[in-house]
Specification:
CATH class: Alpha Beta
Bound molecules: inosinic acid, magnesium ion
Strand order of the largest sheet: 4-3-2-5-6-7
Shape: globular
Strand content: 25-35%
CATH architecture: 3-Layer(aba) Sandwich
Number of domains: 1
Radius of gyration: 15 Å
């Protein structure tokens, strides 16, 4: 069955906000460099757009955590299935995530990454759904806070589809 997608955040709005985040990060890390640890696969679109808007030196690497499978509900169990390839010790590490939902993914990732002794640690997320939080996460850079809805596009998928949409939308069946 084909689903309809209702636009929640158009491309221009995402673009504008990501530019602001890039400027903020460039200001906060002036005179330093940053290491963006981008989570696969959802945060790739946001991560690339953000990186393009950061004016201090940037290193990019990728990691992947275990996901929801085909469903839309978190199990609370998080595993790193593909790790970073570069060391983060001594780096100004920023974990770049697509969306924070229950918080389990970033809660776990924060602990793992802090154990690797970066110089500093921060989290940047394109979207946040605080209503669904089950564990606390300290978020430094948030693109948009959104209500509790399952969203797709700009990297986010539903059953591996819709990642390529240039906007954030809600699937209406
Ligand atoms: P958390 O561990 O529950 O915070 O889940 C975060 C991960 O769940 C995100 O990185 C996404 O991959 C996925 N996710 C959560 N909400 C959505 C959504 O609305 N659309 C698509 N993926 C989502
Ligand atoms: Mg993700």
């Amino acid at each position: 069955m084909a689903e309809n997608i209702k636009v929640m955040l158009p491309e221009e709005e995402l673009d504008r906000r990501i530019t602001e985040l890039g400027e903020q990060i460039s200001k906060d890390y002036a005179g330093e460099s940053v290491f963006l640890a981008v989570t696969l696969r959802g945060a790739v679109f946001f991560g690339c757009e953000l990186a393009k808007r950061i004016s201090v030196p940037v290193t990019i690497d990728f990691l992947q955590t275990s996901s929801y499978g085909g469903g839309t509900v978190s199990t609370g169990e998080v595993k790193i299935v593909k790790d970073l390839e570069l060391p983060v010790e001594g780096q100004n590490l920023i974990v770049v995530e697509d969306i924070i939902d229950s918080g389990h993914t970033l809660n776990h990732l924060s602990k793992v990454m802090k154990d690797r002794h970066p110089k500093s640690f921060a989290i940047a997320t394109m979207l946040d759904k605080p209503d669904r939080r089950e564990v606390d996460v300290d978020v430094d850079y948030t693109g948009f806070t959104i209500p509790d809805a399952f969203v797709v596009g700009y990297g986010l998928d539903y059953d591996q589809r819709y990642r390529n949409l240039p906007y954030i939308g809600v699937v209406e069946s």
